[in-house]
Model the fold of this input.
Amino acid sequence: MTRTLATVEELAEEAQVLARSLAPKSDGATLVTLSGDLGAGKTTFAQSLAKALGVTEHVTSPTFVLAKTYTLKDQTFSELVHIDAYRLKEGELQSIRFNELHVRPDVLIVLEWPERVRESLPKADVALSLSVGPDETRTLSYA
Done:
């Protein structure tokens, strides 16, 4: 499925729709991946998803710290872990405890730049790709 989004508000609405559709799995964390060029809206989408899940603190890109964890209250997940793999190399996911997180059904992992660590990643539960058009619209594709 592909959607063309004209505004940041529409991107936020799409994140809310996704948030309502997510549910924990019995065999491990739920993994959402976000692909796209720099400036495509990956972090904006992650911020909107976090807000839709009840995160009240300011959500920033984890580019330099690699991963940030947010506690979710009154949600089906207890934690949202936002990972930016841009600076990681293949095989370095364990440096941020990915394997420990991925076995926990109460965790929702949102990972930007999955192509940087593709061989280390399990199959995503939801794989999204974002691109920017010449008129600044965003195209969001669900794989």
In short: The chain has one domain: 2-142. The longest helix spans residues 8-21. The radius of gyration is 14 Å.
